[in-house]
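Input/output pair, single chain:
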Amino acid sequence: MHTLEQISAFVAVFELGSYSHAAKHLGKSRTTVREHVIAYEDLLGYALFEIEGRKAVPTDKAIQLYQRAKLVEKQNRSLFAQSQTLYETDVHTINICYDVITPLDLIAYIEHQLLSYREDLTVNWLHRTRDQALELLIQGTCDIAILPYRGKATAEKEVTWRALGNVEVGFYVGSNSPLVQRKALKLEELMLETQYITENFATFNSDLLSVKLSPKVHTVSNSDLLCELVKLNGWTAMPKRYMTPWVEKGELVEIKLNEVEQSLRFGLNAFFCFGKSDIEEFSLILDWMHDWWDLSSN
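Output:
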């Protein structure tokens, strides 16, 4: 019977292409990784890699075996993460990462619910990009991350998630922009103007939100600053709920595009490590997120 060390070594060498890189990734010596792979090959009765220079090139059988081995390794890590999480029964501090498109009303609702539930809790809301938030989840310094759905069946990291709801997005310009007067606005006209895009959207590949339509693109980390800049120049694509106060004050105007549907939207998910939802505090947070979305949709 194979061991988990053998499976992990095989997967690492397969993905990284060399024993040295796999050893560095696993935090082991090259000799140890090589021994695990050789032992696995002896067990299977066939070679998994051919050495070409410094590269370990997978054989046809290794290619066929990889997906199953990867699944076993992933399940093992998920089991370990869940078993470790079960020890976190005494919760005093909760760290929640959120993307720029997260409705602020949702954050305020969760904060209120948490403090009503336990006044002694310390709750930290951390604005992070998707990659940063997922990495913090893996490190254990973030408990839940509210992030946009990428349209894929699996996440980039060893985490799970729950779908929350959809966020509507619109296109906006300053109230004095000449684009406001155009009734049949086309995307090509936006290409002539400066496009302002949030740092989060710049790293998120979804429809028009991160597509750099204009040759001149300015990336801005702070959403409020982005709105102030758009008041003076250019255009942006942002969640409608976030932009409502700016529109109501007459400082920004939502524009309609011929090529884009009236309701451009994408999903928002709550990401967390395996086993986290078994802990009462985090289970309640996930439930409250669904409650807020149901209430706001009615």
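The mean pLDDT is 86. The first strand starts at residue 49 and ends at 52.
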